[in-house]
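thread: overnight batch results

M.L. [08:02]
morning all. the overnight job finished for the chain we discussed friday. pasting input first so we're all looking at the same thing
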Amino acid sequence: MAITIATWNINSVRLRIGIVEQFLAAEAPDVLCLQEIKTIDDSFPRNALIEAGYPHLAIAGQKGYHGVAIASKLPFKTVEKDDWVAMGDARHLRVRFEDGLLLDNFYIPAGGDEPDPVANPKFDHKLKFLREMVAWGDRRRKTEKRAIVVGDFNVAPLEHDVWSHKKLLDVVSHTPVETALLAEVQVSHDWVDAVRHFVPPSEKLYSWWSYRAADWNAADKGRRLDHIWVTPDLAGGLVSTRTLREARGWEKPSDHVPVMLTLEI
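M.L. [08:03]
and the structure it wrote out:
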């Protein structure tokens, strides 16, 4: 069977539930993974998702900050939450579907503005989080052969994942230390970058555009921060991916757009 999974940093699910409903009505993915939901579990708009056809919900919420959720047409066998870097932040959810497929949804720390772990605790937190993910991948590599990881990784790893490689080398999200660590995370579990499987690394591709630009589309100073990776055993089933650039122009948009994968499992 084919399954379509979408990942989207929604930047407040309650504020933007209208475009979530719009997206689900138009695209109808089987699973929607959200990041930065910015709400506690009890305030999550469950009814809107259920009415849209997504009765299976996993939520890791936090008041005003962070938070991730998974809304699915398919039932979960198990739901788990990990506390990364022992910070108590709601940045992760893991679900296993009834066929054994494993899905992890991450909101990796943004890291603040200064790419110095000594001067900037937020950047230090981000680097520690990525290092923990390397160890996590190493632990699971031999046991989890049918796994998917998605989310806002807050790292644009490749030269053409940013609008200017040279100008952003000292900007958090594209610094060499971050891109090197994300590469280690990828190697740790032999993850396959599903989007770049279809879009060559030589082609510019973004999933985030700053609110600061007067005209985000004309300036086109984007970064590819949102990712979908699969284990090698699933790579043969990759069917297609889409990055919905047009969503950045919707009413009350997130600064991120949905990224989608269709996969034969």
